Amino acid sequence: MAVSKDTARDAVTDPDVPQNNGPAEPAVPQRAGGQTPQEPEHSRPDSRKARWGTRWATVVAVLQRLLYVVITAAVGWAVYFFLLARLARGPEQVWVFLPVWLIAAYAFLPRVHKILSSLYLPNYFIGRARTGDGVLGDPVNLAVVGPADELRTAMLTAGWIEADPVTPSTAWRTLSATLLGRSYPQSPVSALYVFGNKQDMAFQREIDGNPRKRHHVRFWKCPEGWMLPGGFAVDWVGAGTYDKSVGLSLFTFQITHKIADGTDEERDFIIGTLQTANAVESVHVIRHFSSGYHHRNGGGDSIRTDGHLPIIDLRPHGQRDSAPAL
């Protein structure tokens, strides 16, 4: 393990951890006996203009939801029409499975998940990335202090390769490389979302000269002034996992990579490569950043984590020696 549990310290009590305890709690106003406190703003009567604005915003939101539901229902009807109605005519209609799978996997089921996840998942940071359908994805298991150019240089120096963006061309190249056993070191990774944004950069290490198996990590830039729960200021959060094979998503049946459940081991491997490249000033661990848990990611793959979050403080590029990359 790159970050030894024997030496990892609780970041809450570590004076060297880059942290910000946040603003002091506001003092409770002291009032003379018998004085009635002023109504808080949220309980005061709204003005006529404010009420109309709120109602109009509600109407627009409801119409948007209804339109999304209608489109989803239409896609579901198309699945029924192509599959059940045609299969009833005889086994020679088995060819309809392909269009039905495409419609269900890439249109109907993602829309259903989008609707449901918007209802039951909070729209704020909870230590998990999310898929484009809103489903919980990989655990956020890294944090980094340092600018973008230093992070990119550190990863490249440590032997990682930056992933290409997803385009029809790169998607086809990934598919053909996977099926034919060819190398594609810059193979793109799918989009996952933190802070409502997809990853700002992603890096990988191909295994056995094929994108079917690979180490990979995504990084998201933290919003200005944002801090981790507990008041720790960082510049980036990351999610590192290992792709062990290619298969179908458990939730949408889309073609996707299947990840290994040992996300902690992958997290520590990433840190180890950076330390070997002498790109790390220090690593401090927020122990029990979240409770350790077993769950599934956005593709339905099992994941497990101890809940610890290492904070990597990058060494400025000019202070690194010539340690070889892995």
UniProtKB/TrEMBL annotation:
Keywords: Membrane, Transmembrane, Transmembrane helix. Residues 1-49, 305-326 are annotated as: Disordered. The chain crosses the membrane at residues 66-87, 93-109. Signal peptide: none annotated. Residues 1-12, 39-49 have a biased composition (Basic and acidic residues). It comes from the Bacteria. Residues 120-309 form the LssY-like C-terminal domain. It comes from Arthrobacter globiformis (strain ATCC 8010 / DSM 20124 / JCM 1332 / NBRC 12137 / NCIMB 8907 / NRRL B-2979 / 168). This is LssY-like C-terminal domain-containing protein. Pfam families: LssY_C. The keyword Iron-sulfur does not apply. The keyword Glycosyltransferase does not apply.
